[in-house]
């Protein structure tokens, strides 16, 4: 269920459930737009088995041209943007499935997710990331965990819709294991806001998992970044200092034996050191990143630019001569 890769910012994690009746996935995300893919990238990079369902009414695909998402000076067409979102999620380790989710139901081990066409899947956690609707969550409504939907009058008729204030700002809900990035009053307006909301909820999931695995509060927060190895200096380059730092943040009533704590601590130190990379790897990643972008650009435009570069080079050579 977990990903055993330890490169980049990924780390090995313990299983979140017993081996009997183990769910198919750690996280199922409903919605593959900016919110869903952003959350998926963080979850998958940490090592969670992450499945993203994406097919349905997508607000971003109703946009003619996306012009206010940082990083695209002249804007970007929606088809290319969507392809980049999914390519990034898949590169991080997500499985993206083009299917619509019809229902999410609670079971002892977590949830059963029923898609429209494919086979049902089980998961420990569900993250809702669809701006429109939320009807697939209807089976979770009612009882002490209810209140997902609210009623209102319109032209003399009573209508129900998903309560956009149901989730807390961090995406948690009264239903254990259910998180909401969207529909949400905090993220249902702009693509960049939705992406930020998805990342916020994704990190909430990671922090909760780290608590479950025994990380004390001082070590719970997860930072997903890659840093230059030249910054790894002084006491923070000393593994023993990290051990002392971790032990200082371990509470006296920490419910974990010393042997298991040592394993957890060393794994966390390994993860932090792995975030630092040297100049050769930085260069390799820069090249790989730009090549990945080329895969999503129009071939005719690439050839046109190549001819312009050649012409500029010839002109410069003539002036030098």
Automatic annotation (TrEMBL):
Signal peptide: none annotated. Pfam families: Pyr_redox_2 (PF07992). This is NAD(P)/FAD-dependent oxidoreductase. SUPFAM superfamilies: FAD/NAD(P)-binding domain. InterPro entries: FAD/NAD-bd_sf (IPR036188), FAD/NAD-binding_dom (IPR023753), Ferredoxin-NADP_redctase_2 (IPR050097). Residues 25-106 form the FAD/NAD(P)-binding domain. Keywords: Flavoprotein, Oxidoreductase, Plasmid. GO terms for molecular function: oxidoreductase activity. Residues 1-25 are annotated as: Disordered.
């Amino acid at each position: 269920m977990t990903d055993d890769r330890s490169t980049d910012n990924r780390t090995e994690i313990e299983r979140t459930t017993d081996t009997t009746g183990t769910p198919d996935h750690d996280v199922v995300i409903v919605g593959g737009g900016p919110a869903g893919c952003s959350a998926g990238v963080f979850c998958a990079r940490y090592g969670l088995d992450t499945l993203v369902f994406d097919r349905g009414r997508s607000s971003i695909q109703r946009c003619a041209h996306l012009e206010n998402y940082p990083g695209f000076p002249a804007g970007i067409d929606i088809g290319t943007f969507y392809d980049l979102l999914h390519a990034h999620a898949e590169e991080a380790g997500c499985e993206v499935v083009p299917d619509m989710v019809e229902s999410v139901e609670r079971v002892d081990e977590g949830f059963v997710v029923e898609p429209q066409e494919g086979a049902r899947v089980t998961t420990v956690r569900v993250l809702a990331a669809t701006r429109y609707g939320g009807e697939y969550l209807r089976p979770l409504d009612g009882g002490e965990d209810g209140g997902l939907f609210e009623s209102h009058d319109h032209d003399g008729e009573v209508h129900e819709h998903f309560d956009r204030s149901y989730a807390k700002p961090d995406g948690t809900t009264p239903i254990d294991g259910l998180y909401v990035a969207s529909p949400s009053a905090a993220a249902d307006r702009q693509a960049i806001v939705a992406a930020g909301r998805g990342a916020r909820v994704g990190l909430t999931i990671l922090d909760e998992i780290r608590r479950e695995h025994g990380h004390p509060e001082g070590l719970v927060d997860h930072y997903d970044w890659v840093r230059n190895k030249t910054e790894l200096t002084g006491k923070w380059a000393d593994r023993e200092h990290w051990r002392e730092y971790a032990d200082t943040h371990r509470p006296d009533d920490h419910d974990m034996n010393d042997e298991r704590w040592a394993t957890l601590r060393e794994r966390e130190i390994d993860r932090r050191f792995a975030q630092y990379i040297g100049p050769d790897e930085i260069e390799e990643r820069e090249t790989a990143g730009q090549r990945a972008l080329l895969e999503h650009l129009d071939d005719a435009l690439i050839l046109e630019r190549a001819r312009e570069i050649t012409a500029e080079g010839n002109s410069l050579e003539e002036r030098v001569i």
